[in-house]
Each structure stands twice: as structure tokens, then as C-alpha cells.
Automatic annotation (TrEMBL):
Keywords annotated in UniProt: Transferase
Transferase listed as a keyword: yes
Organism domain of life: Bacteria
Originating organism: Bacillus cereus
GO molecular function terms noted in the UniProt entry: acyltransferase activity, transferring groups other than amino-acyl groups
Keyword Lipid metabolism: no
N-acetyltransferase domain ranges (all copies): 8-169
Designated name of the protein: Acetyltransferase
Gene3D superfamilies: 3.40.630.30
Pfam families the UniProt entry points to: Acetyltransf_3
């Protein structure tokens, strides 16, 4: 186990998490910020990449589980991301749709922020949020993050405006 909060815990994902991950990453509502659903090959790449990140960096996106039932409800964690012209360590998360609006995103990102600062010794973490993802912007602000800048990235369907939020220890 990586960390636990009041209702949730994080642990490394493994190949046996593929089906749960697939259900989430192939849901068009969950993946709207990516503007496409993942294929089975995309899901496998996502899983393999995060397993590699655990070994290479000591962090990645971990599985989120409900303490009460051990049910997989999403993934969250830290990853190196390009933000305009710099690389940053981002707190990111995805939740299965049925677990939206229950406070889980705020709960798990708070735990990840504390883990990043207290266990990994990071001095600053970021969130890269699509301009129209109001719910994630609210989560970032609740975490104490401030919007640093706006930038545009090239993505599957063209240019996409993002906001870079951050918080320092």
C-alpha cells in the first residue's frame, strides 16, 4: 500500500487490474478530457507505462480502492508531464463515473500531495487541467493550488487549452 486516507487507499497496479482499468479508460464520459476512448492496446500501454514508472521513479499512477470493499474506483498519483516548455511532477487522477461527486478526488489528491511533500521530499507539485474541466479546477483550488499559467498542447483533435496549477510545500 502506498498511502491511505479516511475512505480510500492507493496501491501499485498490476496486470490483473487490466479489466477494471479498461472499464474506466473506455468510458467516454471519464475520458472526455482526452477526447477519445482508449483501445485495449492503449489500456495495456497505460498500465505497462505506470508499472515501469514505479520502478524508474518510485511513483506513478496507482490504483484507488475503497477501504470498505477493496473495490477499484480509479487511479491517481504522480507522473512526469510536459507543461508547455517545462517538465513538472503532476498530481493526476481518473475516477470511474459512478464515483464522481463523492469527494474522493479531493480526498485522494490531498493524500498524494502530503505523500509527495513528506515521503518523497518534493517541494512543489502541479496539476495540468483542461480549460473546460471545471470539476478538476475546483479540486485543485480546494487542494490549495493556484493557477500559474495557460498553455496550448497539440492533441488528437487539434490544439487543446490547459491550465497549469501548482502548490509548494
Amino acid at each position: 500500500m502506498i498511502l491511505e486516507t479516511e475512505y480510500l487507499y492507493l496501491k501499485e497496479m498490476h496486470q490483473d487490474d487490466f479489466d477494471d482499468l479498461k472499464m474506466m479508460l473506455q468510458d467516454p464520459d471519464v475520458m472526455y478530457a482526452y477526447e477519445h476512448n482508449f483501445s485495449d492496446a492503449d489500456v495495456q500501454f497505460w498500465l505497462d507505462r505506470n508499472i515501469k514508472r514505479y520502478k524508474d521513479f518510485g511513483f506513478g499512477l496507482w490504483g484507488i480502492y475503497l477501504k470498505e470493499t477493496d473495490e477499484f474506483i480509479g487511479n491517481a498519483g504522480l507522473s512526469m508531464q510536459d507543461a508547455d516548455i517545462e517538465q513538472v511532477i503532476e498530481i493526476g487522477y481518473l475516477l470511474k463515473k459512478e464515483f464522481w461527486y463523492k469527494g474522493y478526488a479531493s480526498e485522494i489528491t490531498k493524500g498524494i500531495k502530503e505523500y509527495a511533500f513528506n515521503e518523497l521530499g518534493l517541494s512543489k507539485v502541479y496539476s495540468i487541467i483542461k480549460h473546460d474541466n471545471i470539476a478538476s479546477q475546483k479540486v485543485a483550488k480546494k487542494l490549495g493550488m493556484i493557477k500559474e499559467k495557460e498553455f496550448t498542447t497539440k492533441y488528437y483533435n487539434g490544439d487543446m487549452l490547459h491550465y497549469l496549477y501548482s502548490i509548494s510545500k
